């Protein structure tokens, strides 16, 4: 028996009403995301990648179609804490230590002090920030801050992790390193990940599925199932298989412009 998808989007539409008239952000988006998959969304700026992630998180509400998260409405899923969300900027509170930043969602959810301490220790270990608990965000590099924000999203152990261009502002070496770490973390935790990126190599390196989107109104032009093995050293990027997938992503992006 196959489990039902974690995310099920069917003919999703979203039009924002703005002072300058309607903005059609998503058009007829249908997609199933299976448990344990790593799904990247790639497409030109403004094509609705963030909007789609925000719909899953119930931060935006579609104007048409249907969307379920773990079989629930996005609002129900939000109340059930079905996901952790990592934003483009780390968004840590400067007056709280790393440990207290990571503990924040647990505090809000009413975990006991002892449970908070235990979970914070576990997730900081997962993102390799053990020993930095008492530091303040400004004492950490950009990459470490982003790792701390991932730890915060992992703190309450939701099965689904939504990540909106988490490494976009980092230099390439740090980004490579965090990509490797994220894959290890995904393998260890078996979470389902939805990941927005502008980078073709990043999407191909990380994903089991790559969703290619067209310029506004955002539609899905291709969903590529990666043939790459789960175990991926960084030099996999030089293999013909990798280059072939990257080529198909590029073609999909180009097709979106030409339609
Ligand atoms: N709250 C809003 N009100 C009005 N328009 C919005 C709102 N949020 C997004 N948009 C518009 O919807 C479109 C899709 O935006 P979105 O941020 O989802 O794109 P994106 O693909 O994530 O872009 P980027 O890669 O630049 O982050 C854009 O044209 C944007 O201006």
Characteristics:
single chain, ATP-binding, three-stranded antiparallel beta sheet, nucleotide-binding, 259 residues, 9 strands, Taurine transporter ATP-binding subunit, AAA+_ATPase, six-stranded mixed beta sheet, 24% strand, ATP binding, binds adenosine-5'-triphosphate, alpha/beta, Rossmann fold
Give an overview of the whole structure:
With 259 residues, the chain is an alpha/beta fold. The chain folds into two domains: 7-82 and 159-258, 3-Layer(aba) Sandwich (Rossmann fold); 90-157, no CATH class. The chain has eight helices and nine strands. The chain has a six-stranded mixed β-sheet, sandwiched between helices. A three-stranded antiparallel β-sheet has the order 2-1-4, covered by helices on one side. Strand 8 and strand 9 (220-225) form a beta hairpin. The chain is globular. It starts with 6 loop residues before the first strand and ends with a helix. The mean pLDDT is 91. The structure holds adenosine-5'-triphosphate. Belongs to the ABC transporter superfamily. It comes from Antarctobacter heliothermus. InterPro entries: AAA+_ATPase, ABC_transporter-like_ATP-bd, ABC_transporter-like_CS, ABC_transporter_ATP-bind, P-loop_NTPase.
């Amino acid at each position: 028996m196959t489990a039902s998808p974690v995310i099920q989007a069917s003919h999703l539409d979203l039009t924002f009403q703005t002072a300058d008239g309607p903005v059609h952000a998503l058009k007829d988006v249908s997609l199933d995301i299976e448990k344990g998959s790593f799904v990247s969304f790639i497409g030109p700026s403004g094509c609705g990648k963030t909007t789609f992630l925000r719909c899953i998180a119930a931060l935006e509400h579609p104007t048409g179609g249907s969307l379920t998260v773990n079989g629930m409405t996005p609002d129900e899923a939000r109340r059930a804490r079905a996901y952790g969300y990592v934003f483009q900027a780390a968004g840590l509170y400067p007056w709280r230590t790393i440990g207290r930043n990571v503990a924040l969602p647990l505090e809000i959810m009413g975990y006991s002090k002892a449970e908070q301490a235990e979970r914070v220790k576990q997730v900081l270990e997962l993102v390799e920030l053990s020993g930095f608990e008492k530091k303040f965000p400004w004492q950490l590099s950009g990459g470490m801050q982003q790792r701390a924000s991932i730890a915060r999203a992992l703190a309450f152990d939701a099965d689904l992790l939504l990540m909106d261009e988490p490494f976009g502002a980092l230099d390439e070496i740090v980004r490579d390193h965090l990509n490797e770490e994220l894959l290890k973390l995904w393998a260890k935790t078996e979470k389902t990940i939805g990941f927005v990126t502008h980078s073709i190599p990043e999407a191909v390196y990380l994903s089991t599925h790559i969703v290619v989107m067209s310029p506004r109104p955002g539609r899905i032009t291709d969903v590529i199932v990666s043939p790459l093995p789960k175990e991926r050293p960084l030099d996999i990027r030089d293999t013909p298989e990798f280059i072939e997938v990257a080529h198909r992503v590029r073609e999909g992006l180009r097709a979106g412009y030409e339609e």
